[in-house]
Automatic annotation (TrEMBL):
Protein name from the UniProt record: Transcriptional regulator, MarR family
Pfam family, one: MarR
Entries under PANTHER family matching the protein: TRANSCRIPTIONAL REGULATOR, MARR FAMILY (PTHR33164), TRANSCRIPTIONAL REPRESSOR PROTEIN-RELATED (PTHR33164:SF105)
SUPFAM superfamilies in the cross-refs: Winged helix' DNA-binding domain
GO biological process, any: response to stress
Domain HTH marR-type positions: 15-146
InterPro entries (alphabetical): HTH_MarR-typ, MarR/SlyA-like, WH-like_DNA-bd_sf, WH_DNA-bd_sf
UniProt-listed PROSITE patterns: HTH_MARR_2
Protein's organism: Stigmatella aurantiaca
Gene3D superfamilies in the cross-refs: Winged helix-like DNA-binding domain superfamily/Winged helix DNA-binding domain
High-level lineage: Bacteria, Pseudomonadati, Myxococcota, Myxococcia, Myxococcales
GO molecular function: DNA-binding transcription factor activity
Length: 146
């Protein structure tokens, strides 16, 4: 009992699917930022994670997961190489030993400080190419989907 989907449906999805277009754009942006951040030894995901930890007080794993819209298991896995490389410190929370507190180390702060100018330059170049759309309009539209 074979049902056929007309090729026109494939074209419709290709041309109109918001999820597909956002995924494609996300992959293209990720590649661009990965390449730009390579000189400081970071991927775009690691940069985002280090940036999420750049705060006055240590962050909890849950707070970082919520900020990055990731599950805790994925954040934990992403932290392992950063901890191994000495960029992040993970300590038990003294007020709740089940919770973990995440902080940037001195090396992590230095790496982030080296990466931010690269991110700014890459980001500015990408925003400049968003014509005729405004970067703020794009951000608002994408945030509305969350």
């Amino acid at each position: 009992m074979s049902r056929k989907v007309p090729f026109e449906a494939t074209l419709e999805v290709r041309d109109t699917c918001l999820c597909l277009h956002v995924q494609r754009a996300a992959r293209a942006l990720a590649r661009r930022f990965d390449e730009a951040l390579r000189p400081v030894g970071l991927t775009h995901g690691q940069f985002s994670l280090l940036n999420a930890l750049n705060r006055p007080q240590p962050a909890t794993l849950g707070a970082v997961a919520r900020l990055l819209v990731m599950d805790r298991t994925t954040v934990t896995a992403a932290l392992k190489p950063l901890e191994r490389d000495g960029l992040v410190s993970i300590q038990a929370d003294p007020s709740d030993r089940r919770s973990r507190l995440l902080t940037l180390t001195g090396k992590g702060l230095e790496t982030l400080a080296s990466a931010v100018p690269i991110w700014r330059e890459t980001h500015a170049a990408l925003e400049a190419g968003l014509v005729p759309s405004s970067p703020d309009g794009l951000r608002a539209a994408l945030l509305a989907l969350c």
